[in-house]
Structures are given as structure tokens and as C-alpha cells.
Write a structure and sequence with these properties.
Blueprint lengths: L1 H19 L5 H19 L1 H11 L4 H58 L8
Helix pairs in contact: 1-2, 2-3, 3-4
Length: 126
């Protein structure tokens, strides 16, 4: 009973957090609410998890839940890895563009200063 209450509190926190983050990531928020709701269902009715596990050919309900959790976690890690890699490529491209722009600006400034002093005609009025 203590484990059920603890898991219920944690899953309710996940639902609240997912609901709060729904605007930023609607798909992730929806999936998190659905998974946490299913978790609440199986926390309070563990026999149904065992029945579902037996139905799909897995020995225990806990094993089924762990397998599903593993797949979801690996999918999330892969997604985060791909997003991080994409952002790294964007940052590299931005840094390259900034470096090129700064280099061209320095060359242009030097060229203008050099050209304005070299083409100056001497003041002969004095």
C-alpha cells in the first residue's frame, strides 16, 4: 500500500508537469499524460498488468512494464541525441558565418582606410 501511494504521488506529479509543459511540446505532453495515466491504472490494478503481460507472452506484469519503460527511455535518449547533434551543427554553422562576416568586415575596413589615404590628393593651398 505504501508503494502504491508513493507511485501514485509520483505519477500525479508527472501528469501535472506534462500538463504544464503541453504548450511547448503538445505531443510529448499528451504521451506523458497517457503513459502516466496507464501507470496509475496498473499501480492500482496490478492483476490487469499481469493479465496483459500473459496475453502478449511475457511472464509477469512488472516485466511488461519494465520492457515498455525501456523502449520509451531508449526512444527519448535517441531523440535527445539527434536534437543535440542538430543544434551542434547549427551552432557550428552560425559560428562559421560570424567568423567569415567579421573577417570580411575587417578586410573591408582596412581597404577603405587604406584606399582613402592612398587616393588623397595633397593640399596645395598652403
Amino acid at each position: 500500500m505504501i508503494a502504491q501511494i508513493g507511485l501514485t504521488v509520483l505519477l500525479l506529479w508527472v501528469i501535472a508537469y506534462a500538463w504544464a509543459e503541453y504548450r511547448r511540446a503538445p505531443l510529448i505532453g499528451t504521451v506523458a499524460v497517457l503513459v502516466a495515466t496507464a501507470g496509475l491504472y496498473f499501480v492500482w490494478l496490478p492483476a490487469h498488468a499481469s493479465w496483459l503481460a500473459a496475453f502478449v507472452g511475457i511472464g509477469r506484469g512488472v516485466d511488461l512494464i519494465l520492457y515498455v519503460w525501456l523502449v520509451i527511455s531508449l526512444t527519448m535518449f535517441l531523440d535527445l541525441h539527434l536534437k543535440l547533434r542538430s543544434q551542434t551543427e547549427v551552432i557550428t554553422a552560425l559560428a562559421r558565418e560570424i567568423a567569415i562576416a567579421n573577417s570580411l568586415a575587417k578586410v573591408t575596413r582596412r581597404g577603405m582606410i587604406g584606399s582613402s589615404t592612398s587616393t588623397r590628393t595633397p593640399d596645395l593651398r598652403a
